[in-house]
C-alpha cells in the first residue's frame, strides 16, 4: 500500500493561509532561488530545497484535497498540478457543471473513501494529502503515515490551520528530516500509529 503524506507550506504559527484564503509569503521560497524545480520556469529554489523537494514530488502519484481547495484553484483547469497523475477531491457535491469527465479528478464523499481511492490510483507511489480541514480529518482517522511541513519564517496570527479542526492530541515521532533551505525549513515527521 502506498504511503500517505500530509503536506504543505506553513507559517511558524501553524497556518497554511490567512483568513481570506491567501497564502501570502508562504510560497515565496518556491520562487526565490536559482535552481529550477520544474519545467514551468517559475519555480526556482535553493539547491538544498531542490535536493529535498524534487525527489519527493517525483514520488507523488495522487493528491487528495477538499472541495474548497478545488474550487479556489478552479480545479487546476482539469490538469493535476506539478505532474501528479490524479487528484481525489473530498466533497459532498458532484463535479461542477460542464466538468470534463475524462479529467483525472475523482470526487469522493468522505476521507476514508478518498484515501482508499487514492491508494488504488497511486499504486506504489505516494498519496499526498493537502493540509487543512481534509488533512486534519485524514490524520484524525489514523490514515497518515508522515507529516511534511515547509515552515516559512512568517507569523500570520490567524487563518486556515495546517491540521484544520483537529481536536485530539496526535503524537508524531521525532523528525527524521530537518533541512534549512533559503527562507524555509523542511521538516518530516513519521506518524506514530
Automatic annotation (TrEMBL):
MF term (GO), any: 5-amino-6-(5-phosphoribosylamino)uracil reductase activity
Boundaries of every Bacterial bifunctional deaminase-reductase C-terminal domain copy: 111-170
Pfam families tied to this protein: RibD_C
Single biological process term from Gene Ontology: riboflavin biosynthetic process
Family matches, as InterPro entries: DHFR-like_dom_sf, RibDG_C
Domain of life from the UniProt record: Bacteria
SUPFAM superfamilies, alphabetized: Dihydrofolate reductase-like
Transmembrane segments: none
Protein name: Deaminase
Organism phylogeny: Bacteria, Bacillati, Actinomycetota, Actinomycetes, Micromonosporales
